[in-house]
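Records of this kind hold a single protein each, on a pair of labelled lines. Below, a sample record shows both lines together.
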Amino acid sequence: MAIFSYQANDLFDWLTAREDILVLDVRNKKDFSRFQVESPYPFEMINVSYYDFMEIEEESVARVPAGRKIRIVCAKEGSAKYVAEILAKHGYEDVGYLAGGIKTWGNMLVPKLIETNDDFELYQFIRPGKASCSYGLISGNEIMLFDPSRNVDFYLNFAGEKGCKITKTFETHLQADYISGSRMLAEKTGSAFYGDGDFAGSNNPYIPLVDGETHSFSKGGPEVTVLFTPGHTPGSTSYVINSKYMIAGDMVFIASIGRPDLGGKAEEWAGLLYNSIQLVKRLDHNILILPGHYMNWEEANDDLIFITTLGEAIDRNRDIYYIEDEAAFVRFIKDNMRPQPEEYAVIRLVNANLEQVDDDRAEELDLGKNECAATAYAKAQAEKES
């Protein structure tokens, strides 16, 4: 069997179908440790550098189990193809290399249908490489997007396949961990770009939101209500769909809440977050939470959708939601602070349209999982790794 190329979505499908494949990552150890392929289910992966295959070919080939389906990953594609050719020369028969390299995995979006009825369809777009979620709400021939990533071609193609026009795009806050696609989508489609107070100093053509206002489609359909939930950032906003779903951004996670220290004002923003937690606790606990991020695949349901009731999220995170007072909450945040990735400061400037970067730099900034959770285990994990 000749070597072949495959797409990131193919790899995701193989892994979620629990096919017996071996993922061979040929990047250097530093890049591999920073960001790698992950799956909802266990799978075998090894890291053997491309340079090792160049310099000590026989030893490197010997580290790759024979008789297996090998799926090679590298930074940009060329190295993976080179290693695939070496393995084929040594008799390996089922060898594929990831087209476009690891960035295609990092940008991949997986659509999951949450609900469909006579009025609307609601989708969660999972980005496994970033452990983040964006959302699409369809009614008639219109689609609203929430927190889209920079993979704008995906959203344009998705809308086209559904026979829809992108009419509105909403941001829950000024993102720090990934480059947002709202501005690019607005430029390409003429859709309205709605943002919160975080965008006040930006150069974005956004429309300011008003707490409590509702947004609807041109021909009926569901209503989207704006709910200000400051804390992760001063302008953090959630969106409630028909009083049933809450697109929570980085306010409510399934296994944590959004950390309020990314802007360098931990104490001030922690106070805002504490007040928003009290607000959220007064909402209907049956409302279904759709988070902006997840910590790991264990949070997904059997359909691999990240969703839970507000009551379940609060109960799961009782140690956070039931901290006795604001002062104790601020202490909790400070005790769990850890350094944020250096890239976040630049990403904020890019999302504010205050700094421009080329595609290569954008890819570099955008690669890697998020660091947005204020989990109670953050400090312990940091100490364990040090």
Observations:
- Residues 376-386 have pLDDT under 50 and may be disordered.
